[in-house]
Write a structure and sequence with these properties.
The protein is mainly alpha-helical and 598 residues long. It contains 33 helices and no strands. Helix 10 runs antiparallel to helix 11, helix 23 packs antiparallel against helix 24 and helix 31 runs antiparallel to helix 32. It is elongated, with a radius of gyration of 33 Å.
Length: 598
């Protein structure tokens, strides 16, 4: 099968239909245990690191007990205290740190830790915390300092170790931040942390934040059964809550139990009608389930709760577009654009609205306003060029492509292939060939340009030239399955060079064994060589993976050749129901049913 078989339609709602896992950020990022008073003692504040970009305040003065210092060391300590009070905090913090290293005095270490905390100096806090532990092994404070700093630097196993020590010494600590920090880790990195927390949970069963964090870690590690067991145990002890319901919904969704997920979220919305996160996730899962009307109702309710919430407004606009209701989408997108929120996305979808309304000039203007940073940039350029060429403004389309891609060869090549597609669709085949040939002179080894020109040559009926470009690609990139497949299929379908075609397609299949286009091509070449059983097996695989009308035509023809006409007719009729405009299917059916070979 030819390479463009894999060009599938793109959904109109990329922001909603992709990446639809329930958002638990608000559940995991809190510094306080869920639905309970914080389990963190007041002394943990010594470890908190403010934003050092702001003006840091000096730690509040407190009596410092000094050991036997030299006069110079004592003077430095006093000067640092004065410096901190008068706003010279960075200098005072640095000197206090140096003084702590020199003296190893516990009073200086404590005070230096407070200064380092005020400055957000993680490295200094870790060093001072370890010195503090050596000096006072039974002190809780240094372990709190170290646990927090290890969390901040991503050293979670060490953080858990210091948290354990806090508990062993009789202190209290919040474990919630562990799960939010662990999101960046791999499953293998997360597993020892889970094991440590499971052990701690056995030893300290009454720590609510520990239990909750363990549930989230198990969910992150895609252990939904274990996480659900922990969640049920948590619910038995602490009761129902919005957070618990959100986590339960996420676990159900992980197991593809969409109906149960929706039931939990529907109950959650009814129980906690003002919980925006619950309603937002309910709306997103409804979108995933393609229940757009009910999804819109949820986002509309969110908009009533928070009328200026731009993300809700954006979601509503996309759902309206998917529901083919541009009149409701347009004012929402216009407000977003005026607020400069998701400007690129708003311009892109306003372009779609304008195009549906027949305002092509407005549509082009919106598409052209999408910046290169926008996720829809390439799609916007494709639509811009298509509309300009459709309007007969070929020179303007070309000038636009050159201006957008100026100074960026890769983008120039990409947009050139887009322009070629639009020219071909508009019937301007010679112009497309001339443009590609000019670019290939500048970039003679670019395989995308060579492939695009091969397609144009095919349209012009110049198969020898198409073959030259395809073979040039294979010479440059022997692993290019696209070129191997296209040339192999072309030889099998339009020539009698079947052995040569089979060799090319076997190479392509070795590189991309699951690609249905390649499997179809391979089966077609095998059929042409009379290997009916092998052909049938591959074509059935291709049709199961991608029930396209071209694959159906090939599969039916092989079945017909094997005397299985009833099965062939069933396949053809099934495909024709999906693609009633398929000239290929109709041609094959007419040819074989009439008994002709041409």
């Amino acid at each position: 099968m030819v390479a463009n078989m894999n060009r599938l339609p793109t959904p109109i709602l990329p922001g909603l239909l992709l990446g639809l896992s329930i958002s638990l950020a608000a559940c995991q990022g809190t510094a306080v245990a869920p639905d309970a008073p914080a389990e963190v003692a007041a002394e943990v504040s010594v470890a908190e690191s403010p934003n050092t970009a702001e003006v840091a305040e000096a730690p509040a003065p407190e009596p410092v007990t000094y050991a036997n210092f030299t006069v110079d060391e004592l003077n430095r300590a006093l000067l640092n205290e004065l410096g901190g009070q008068r706003g010279y905090l960075p200098d005072a913090a640095r000197d206090y740190y140096a003084l702590a290293l020199e003296t190893e005095d516990i009073g200086i270490i404590r005070r230096a830790s407070q200064f380092a905390s005020a400055m957000g100096d993680t490295e200094a806090l870790v060093t001072l915390g370890r010195m503090w532990v050596e000096q006072e092994p039974a002190a809780i404070e240094p372990h709190l300092v170290l646990s927090y700093q290890m969390l901040e630097s991503g050293r979670l196993e060490e953080a858990v170790g210091h948290m354990r020590r806090v508990l062993d010494l009789g202190g209290r600590i919040d474990f919630t931040n562990i799960s939010s920090r662990a999101e960046r880790l791999s499953r293998a990195q997360r597993q020892p942390i889970i094991a440590a927390l499971q052990t701690l949970r056995t030893e300290y069963p009454d720590l609510r934040s520990l239990h909750y964090s363990l549930i989230l870690l198990l969910e992150q590690n895609e252990n939904p059964d274990l996480a659900m067991a922990e969640l049920l145990a948590y619910r038995d002890v602490y009761g129902e809550s919005a957070r618990v319901m959100l986590v339960e919904a996420q676990l159900l969704l992980q197991q593809d139990r969409t109906e149960e997920t929706l039931q939990v979220l529907a109950e959650g919305v009814e129980t906690y009608p003002d919980n925006r996160l619950m309603r937002f996730n309910y709306g997103r899962v409804l979108v995933q389930a393609n229940d757009l009307q009910n999804a819109r109702a949820q986002f509309e309710a969110l908009a009533e709760i928070a009328p200026e919430d731009h993300e809700t407004m954006y979601s509503l606009a996309l759902i309206d577009l998917e529901l083919n209701d541009p009149e409701r989408a347009k004012p929402l997108l216009t407000r977003l654009l005026q607020a400069r929120y998701r400007a690129d996305d708003s311009n892109f979808y306003l372009g779609i609205v304008a195009e549906r309304e027949g305002n092509l000039e407005t549509a082009i203007s919106h598409y052209q306003a999408v910046s290169q940073n926008g996720s829809n940039f390439v799609a916007a350029q494709r639509l811009t060029v298509r509309l300009l060429i459709m309007e007969g403004r070929l020179d303007e389309a070309h000038e636009w492509v050159l201006s957008v891609s100026e100074g960026n060869p890769r983008l120039q090549i990409l947009l050139a292939t887009i322009e070629t597609d639009a020219l071909l669709a508009g019937g301007h085949i010679e112009r497309a060939e001339a443009m590609l040939s000019q670019l290939i002179e500048r970039y003679p080894q670019d395989t995308d340009l060579l492939f695009a020109r091969a397609l144009v040559s095919e349209r012009l009926g110049n198969m020898p030239k198409a073959e030259l470009d395809l073979r040039r690609i294979i010479d440059l990139e022997p692993q290019d399955a696209r070129a191997l497949n296209h040339l192999g299929y072309t030889l099998a379908d339009t020539t009698d060079r079947y052995e040569e075609a089979l060799q090319l397609l076997e190479r392509a299949a070795a590189l991309e064994p699951e690609d249905p286009a390649i499997i179809d091509s391979l089966g077609w070449a095998q059929y042409k060589l009379g290997f009916y059983e092998e052909a049938l097996e591959n074509l059935q695989r291709a049709y199961e993976a991608f029930p396209d009308h071209e694959v159906a035509a090939h599969l039916g023809e092989v079945l017909w050749a094997m005397g299985r006409e009833r099965e062939a007719n069933r396949i053809w009729e099934e495909a024709l129901n999906e693609r009633p405009d398929s000239d290929l299917l109709k041609s094959v059916m007419t040819r074989l049913r009439s008994g002709t070979d041409s």
